[in-house]
Amino acid sequence: MEHFLISLLILLFFFLSLTLFILFHNHKSLFSYPNTPPGAIGLPILGESLEFLSSGWRGHPEKFIFDRLNKYKSDVFKTSIVGVPAAIFCGPICNKFLFSNENKLVTPWWPDSVNKIFPSTTQTSSKEEAKKLKKLLPQFLKPEALQRYIGIMDELAERHFNSFWKNREEVLVFPLAKR
Asked: Does the keyword Transmembrane helix apply (predicted)?
């Protein structure tokens, strides 16, 4: 009886080790192409989701991005959030690339995990939403539209300066700028 339990335990250990090896090996090969950006995928299934969520819970979700920008010294890096490998694009050059190709090279999408949780909100195509937004955005950024907003922005800035900055010897800029 003891020999049977020991052999069963060894077999179970071998099977578990083999499963973990295959899981980790396949996980690392997701980004094994020669021109991939620097970065880490993190743990299988979880990826770097926990780090991303914890920085968000602390009130600084941008810290996740800035930490990786400093770590990899690149405006593009790879990561895995909500179990899906992704490339993160940051900086003006990357924004120009994303917004100038009109969804020819990069297409917006939702991960399967998000589609399962929120099926009704993801029914409309991301391409359709991008086209609608692209049509609306120039109307807000026309010089005539911006001229209408200048008076409102000036009034808000003046009120802000009068209430928080006027007659002070010392001014806390960072907390006020974060608003």
From this structure: yes
